[in-house]
Amino acid sequence: MDKRKQIRVIPFPKQPVQLQLMGNGFLEILLAQDVSEGGMAVRVPHKFDGYDIHSSVEMVVSLPGYKPFKAKGKIKHLSASREAEGFFGLQFLQMDIKGKESLLNYVQKLASLRRMAG
């Protein structure tokens, strides 16, 4: 049983979701593997080796067709097998109302497009 409550969508390859992640001593520009209202999964080939990933992070999220927005969040560990492949979760903790609206609209739009295509 999946413990996530939110719809999770996978961005279209030609319309990636870009994420600038700023943490304690690091800055990464990543592409989201999947996106939900509560967070996203990213692939980090170096697995954040040598970085302090336990403090909160700041993000600038760029959804295709929407203005980029800032958010605060934290890095979540996924299963050991997913982490071995470099996958991590990012949980959103705080964002402004415009960012929330953009995120919700993006997820719902993608979910309905995927349903029509499926």
UniProtKB/TrEMBL annotation:
Pfam families of this UniProt entry? PilZ (PF07238)
Q: What residues form the membrane-spanning segments? A: none
A molecular-function term among this protein's GO annotations: cyclic-di-GMP binding
Q: What is this protein called?
A: PilZ domain-containing protein
Q: Which domain of life is it from?
A: Bacteria
Which organism is the protein's source?
A: Leptospira semungkisensis
> Source organism lineage?
Bacteria, Pseudomonadati, Spirochaetota, Spirochaetia, Leptospirales
Under InterPro entries, the record lists: PilZ_domain
- Every PilZ domain range: 3-108
